[in-house]
C-alpha cells in the first residue's frame, strides 16, 4: 500500500524519507514539485498526483507536505487519513508537528513510523499503544535514561494490541481520578450581504480528558440527545447502546481524546450570536475606497461574546489601508492583502467599529467584488445548540472520580459576504 | 541521551563525518574510492562494548538514513549488532537492516539465524518482530525460510504473531510470486481465524495475493460480516472494499426492478419535458412480468453490519461504507450515506477533495440523496480553488426545477469572486444548468449576456463560449443576442471567444443578414494578426456567407481565401484550398459543388453539456482509479450483478466433522427444516454461523434437485409443498445427491489439508489426506500421482506441485555443474583422521582477504550449543564427484576440474577443502599457474593454492585450496591465471559439502534433535527406488550427497547421520526412516534452515536415482 513517505518543507527540501518496501528515489518528488509550482497556492496542490510509475498522495499540515508514494490501487482516503494520523501522532509526541520538532526527534520519528506501518499497511496507530511501545521524549526521561541506560523502547507487547479495547493501556494509575468533558460547538455560517443567513449549522465535538485508574466503564447521557443529527464516534463507544438508549457508553482511552463529533442539523434554526454592519465601497476612477465595519452582539443568551477577530482577504488592487478602530487593534499585510482586526470582547453599550480609507493601486480597475469577512468569536459556558450533559456514571471501579463538563461555543467557518 | 542530540550533531558536523558528507553526492558512488574511512568513528562505537555508545552510533546512522544519506558501507559493522541485548539498539539495527539488506544480500544472510532464534522466543513481541524483519529483508535466497516461518507463525498461539504472519504474506509474494499457491493455503488458514486482530490483515493479504479467489471467502463471509465492527479501522476499510466486490458476484441486484423506472426518469429529465405516459404503462406491464425480488439474507447481513460504521471517526471507513451502500444497497436505502459524507466535508481539505469527487459521481446517479444537504456544498471564498470547483460540480448536479433559483442566486455571488478560474467554472456551470433545466434557460442566457459586458476578459470569453452552446439549442429567438455578440468582436481578444462568435454568426447568418458581412469585413482586415483557430473560423464564416449572400461577400471571401492561401500554417492553407474548390464554381469543380450549401449549413445537433463525472461510477467509488478516472495498477474491476444468483449455500459453514454413516431418515428430517429463517437469527446474533448444522448443504442439494434454480427464499415457501410431491423423486435422486455431497466433502477436505485437520476426521478421511500429502511429494519429484477423484483436488495438488517445483528449480540451478563422466573415485587416505595440523607444503599467505575479525565476529552471532563437543570425523564417503571448473575448450587447452576432498582444510578448520586438478592439454608449457583477484562475496574467504611454476604439456597437477563459504551455497569467484591468460572461474559448492561429519552417540543425537524442532525441522516423504533399499545403498547415497557421518542406531529401519557446518559449526542431523514398501521419511534438523531445505532436496534426489 504505502510504499514510501517523504516529508518536504515549504522551501522544497526533503528533510525526511522512509521506505517500507524497496527504496524509491527522491526524484519521484519532482512530479510533486511540478504540481506544486503549477498550483501556485499550497492548498491547491492536488492531493493525488499520477506519475508514470507511482501515484503520489500528499497532505499539507503545519507547513509540511507529507508525500506518500503508492504503487497500486488503494483507497486515497485510506492514505490521506493515515497521513493525518501520522501528523497527529507527531503533534501528540512532540507538542508540535513542525520541521524542527521532527528533525530534533528524528530517531523517535523513525521508530514511530516503523511501528505504525508494516509493509505499507497500518499496524498500530492508536496513540495509547504507541506510547507503550515508544515512550514520548521528556526531559526527565532523557536524564534518567542517560544515567540508568534504560531505553525509550518498550520490550513487551502492549496489552492493548491484543485486547478488544486496543485504545486503552493496562495498569493505569492516578492519585486524583478525574474526568473532564469539553462540549465545543462551532457555528458554520454564511451570511449574505443583507444580513440574512444563507446557511448555518452547528458542528460540535466533545473532547475528553480522562485520567482514571483501572478499567472504568463510563456512561454519559444527555438531557436532549435527539438534537444530535449526525454523530461520529471514537471506536470506544458502544454503538448499540447509543442506537437503543441514546447513551454514550464506553471504556475510555487514557488521556486526551475526541469522544464524539456531531452535527446539529441545519433544519433547526441556528441562532447567530453576532451581526455585522458593513459598508465597503471602491470608487470608480479614483484610487481610494471606503471601509466601515461594525460588529454587534445578537441573541447571546446573556453571555458575552469574546475573542472576536475579523480577517478579510482584500482584493489584490488594495495597496494599503488607513483605518481607525474604536476597540482592539488592526493590522494589514500589504503582501498577502490580509486585514486582521483583533476586537476582543464585545460590549453591547459601545459597539466596536473599524473605519477608514482604502488605498488602491492607481490606474487599476476597481475591484468587482467586495471581500467577504471571516469572523471568529467565542462564547464561554454556552452550547449554542442547547445540548446539555445530564449525568456521567462510572462502573467497574470503586473510587469516586472528579467530574466536570465545560461548554463553549465558537465560530467555525463563519463568513459574511459583503 | 534522548534522540535530540543525534540529529543535531550530525547536522552540525561536529564530528569527522560532518563536512565531507555534505559535499558528497551519494549517487556518484565515490564512497568507496575517496573517503572510505568516513564512518570510522561510528564503526568504532558500534564495535565497543557499551550499549550506550552503540545506541548513540545507531541513532546517528538512522538520522543519516532518514535524510536519505547513504550509510550502506556500515553494513557489516551494524549487522553484527543484530543480536544486541539492548532492545532499542536492536530495533534501530532492524531499521537499518530492512533499509539496506536488499543491497547487501549476502551479509544480510548472516543475520538470519538471529531472527530464526527470535521466531522461537517465548515473548510474542519478539517473535512477531523477528518475523516482521525477516520478511522485510528482500533477499530472494531466504524465500524458503520465509515460507516456513510464515507457515509456522500462521498457527502461532498469539494472534499478534498471526497478524504479523498475514502481513508477511504480501511481502513474500512480492519477492517471489511463485510461492502463490503455498501462500494461498496460508491465507485460507488465516481467513478462518476468528480473532479481529487478524481479520483485517489477512484480507489485505488476500487482496494483494489472490483477489480472484473469491471462493475462499464463502466460508468466512458471515464471520467477516459479524466481526467487522470490532476490527481495527484500517482493516475495516480493506474488508469492506473486498466484501463489496464479493457481494457483486454473489447476490442479485436489489434495484433490478427499479432500473427501468430510473431510466425513464432520466429520460424525462434530460430530454424534453413532455410527459411520456404511455411509456409508464408499458413499464408497469414489464414490471408485472418480473419476479418479486427478495434480498438474500447474507446480502442484508452485510448491509446491516456495515451501517454503524458510517459513524466511524475514520474518513476512509465512512467512505468505504458509503461506496458499499452505493454499489449494493437498494435505492431506497442508499440515502443514509449522504449525511455521513456531508459530515466529512468538515474535515481536512484533502479529505474534502476526495469526498467531493465521490459525491459528484454519486449525485449524478442519485440526485435525491444529497438534495437536503444542498447548502452544505455552498462555497466559501476561503475554500481552495480545487474544492470550489468540485463543490460547483456537485451543486450543478443537484440543480433541478425546484432549487434552481436558489442555486442561481448563489452562482451570482460566485461570479463576482476574485478567483478567476472559479468564475470561469461557474459560468460553465450556469450553462449546464441552463441546458438541463429548460425553464431557466432564458434567465441564464440573459444573465450570461450581461456578463458579456464584464470588465474581465476571461469572464466574457467564457460566457461567449457558453452562450454559443446555449444558442445552438434555439437560435431563432435570439438574433438580438447574436447581434450583441457580433459587436463584441471589437473588444474581445481571447481567441476561443472570438472563434465562437464567428462561428455563431456564420451559422446563423440568416438571422443577422445585415451584420454578418460587416463582421467579415472587419475580420478580413485583421486576418493576418489572428490566432489560428480564429483564422479557421473566419474562413468558415466567409464560406457560409458566400453561399447565402454571395452578392455582398464574394469579393471579401476571395480576399480572405487569398490571404489564407499564403498563410504560414498548413492547416489554414489546406482549408482555404479545400473551401475554394468547394464553393467557387469553376468548370473543373465536381459534383460536390452542388451540395456545398448542404455541407456547410446543415442543421447541427446542439452540444450536450455533461458532467465530467458522468459514468465514472463504473469504477468502484472511493478507489484511486475512480479519483483519477483511469485504471490504476492493481485495480480490481467491480463486477456487474449476476443475472442468476449463484448458489447461496456455499456460505454455509459446515461442521468440520463428517461421518459417512448419515442415516437417510435423519437427513430427510433436516431437509424439511426451513433454513433461512434459522440462519437469519443465528448469524445475526453471534459469529457462530459455523454452528449451523449440515442442513444447509443438504437443503441446497435437495433444492437443486427439486428443479427450481432461482433465489433461495422464494423456494422456501414452495419447498414444503413440493417436498411431499417429490419425495419419491427425491429418493431416486438421493444416489446422485450422495455423490454430490461426497464431492463437496472432498473439496472441504482439500481445503483443510494445510492446517492439521480441525475435528477428529474419520479414518477414511485421514487416509485420504495422507494419500494426498504423499501425492504432493510424488508430484514434487516429477512423478504422476494416482488418478484424481475430483477436479478440484486435482487442481490444488497440481498447482501446489508446480509451486514447489519452481521453488526447487532455483535450487537445482545452483547445482548445475554436472558430475563429469570420467571422474574416477579418488581414494583419500584415512590417515588424515583428526589431523588438524597443516601439512608443510602449503604455506599460508599472510595477506588475508577480508578482515578476519569481522568473520569471527559474525560467527559469534550464531550460537551453537557449546556443551556438546562433537568430534570431527573423516568422511565415510563413497564416490567423490568431480566438477568442471574450466573446460578444455574454454581454457584453450587447459582443463581444470575440482572435487571436494572432504578433508578438513589444513590451517583453517572453517574452510572447505577443494581439490583442484589441472591438466595441460596444450602443446606448450603453462607457466605461473595461480589464483588471483579472488572476489569473494562479503564474508567469504579464499585460501589460494601455491603458485604452480610450470606445467608441462600433457601433465596434470593437483592442488588444494580452501574456501570458507560462510555456510552458503553462493559461488566463490576468482581468476585462474597463467602467464598468458586469465580465466574467470567460480566454484559453487553443493550444500552437502558445506559440512563435516561429526561423531555422536545415539543418545546425544536424540538430545540434539530434541533441541532442533519446530522451524528447524524439515520433513519430507519419499519413495525409495528398488535398487536403493538396501542398507548399504542408502548409506552410500546419503554420504555421497552430503559430507556426513553415520550415527549408530538401534532400530534397523532407521538411519542417522550427523554433521556440522564448516563455518559456523551448526549441527545438521539427518534421520531417514524406512517404512514398508519403498516409502521412507527423511527428517533434517538444523538451525540453518537454508541448508536444511536444500539438503533435503539433494538427499532425496540422490536417493531417487
UniProtKB/TrEMBL annotation, chain A:
Location of this chain's protein in the cell: Cytoplasmic vesicle membrane; Golgi apparatus
Cellular component GO terms, alphabetical: clathrin adaptor complex; cytoplasmic vesicle membrane; Golgi apparatus
Residue ranges annotated for the MHD domain, each copy included: 176-417
Keywords (A to Z) from UniProt: Cytoplasmic vesicle, Golgi apparatus, Membrane, Protein transport, Transport
Lineage top rank: taxon: Eukaryota
Transferase as UniProt keyword: no
InterPro entries membership: Adaptor_comp_med_subunit, AP2_Mu_C_sf, AP_mu_sigma_su, Clathrin_mu, Clathrin_mu_CS, Longin-like_dom_sf, MHD
Membrane topology: Peripheral membrane protein
Family annotation (Pfam families): Adap_comp_sub, Clat_adaptor_s
GO biological process terms, semicolon-separated: intracellular protein transport; vesicle-mediated transport
PANTHER family: AP COMPLEX SUBUNIT MU
Entry's family note: Belongs to the adaptor complexes medium subunit family.
Protein name as catalogued: AP-3 complex subunit mu-1
Species this chain originates from: Pipra filicauda
Gene that encodes the chain: AP3M1
From TrEMBL, chain B:
Superkingdom assignment: Eukaryota
Keywords: Cytoplasmic vesicle, Golgi apparatus, Membrane, Phosphoprotein, Protein transport, Transport
Gene3D superfamilies, sorted: Leucine-rich Repeat Variant
Domain AP-3 complex subunit beta C-terminal stretches: 823-970
Basic and acidic residues composition-biased segments: 739-751
InterPro entries: AP3_beta, AP3B1/2_C, AP3B_C, AP_beta, ARM-like, ARM-type_fold, Clathrin/coatomer_adapt-like_N
Record's subcellular location: Cytoplasmic vesicle, Clathrin-coated vesicle membrane; Golgi apparatus
Compositional bias ranges of the Basic residues kind: 773-784
Region (Disordered): 1-33, 671-848
GO terms for cellular component: AP-3 adaptor complex; clathrin-coated vesicle membrane; Golgi apparatus
Gene Ontology BP annotations: intracellular protein transport; vesicle-mediated transport
Bias kind Low complexity: ranges: 698-712, 792-809
Membrane topology, as annotated: Peripheral membrane protein
Signal peptide, first to last residue: none
Skewed-composition ranges (Acidic residues): 713-738
Family in the record: Belongs to the adaptor complexes large subunit family.
General function of this protein: Subunit of non-clathrin- and clathrin-associated adaptor protein complex 3 (AP-3) that plays a role in protein sorting in the late-Golgi/trans-Golgi network (TGN) and/or endosomes. The AP complexes mediate both the recruitment of clathrin to membranes and the recognition of sorting signals within the cytosolic tails of transmembrane cargo molecules. AP-3 appears to be involved in the sorting of a subset of transmembrane proteins targeted to lysosomes and lysosome-related organelles.
Protein name: AP-3 complex subunit beta
